[in-house]
Amino acid sequence: MQRRTRAQATLLLSLIVAGPAAADHRSTMEALTKDLPADAKALVYRIVDCNHWLGEEPYDAERRKEIERAIAELGCSRLDRDEAALRQRYANRQRVIEAFDRAHKVE
Length: 107
Prior knowledge:
There is one protein chain. This protein is mainly alpha-helical and 107 residues long. 74% of the residues lie in helices and 0% in strands. It is built from 6 helices and no strands. The relative contact order is 0.16.
């Protein structure tokens, strides 16, 4: 069984509570990551999760801490470097590169 970080668990819970929107998000992510190598798939999820958390509003101190914790757990500060490395590794696999590009557009 895969171990989830607190940020992933929080995002998953928010998706479950969101109902139909969560189903749309889930199907989008499944389609986006279908047949990708494990490291590329993990990066796609990180891109989407980092974009989510970096766009959240820190409306109070508790929320600010939650956002900062999620960003740290996801390694958002290393995301550009990690993405560049995988883009180089998979430079000849257009499907992987397209998945990275599309991940930046997922809302």
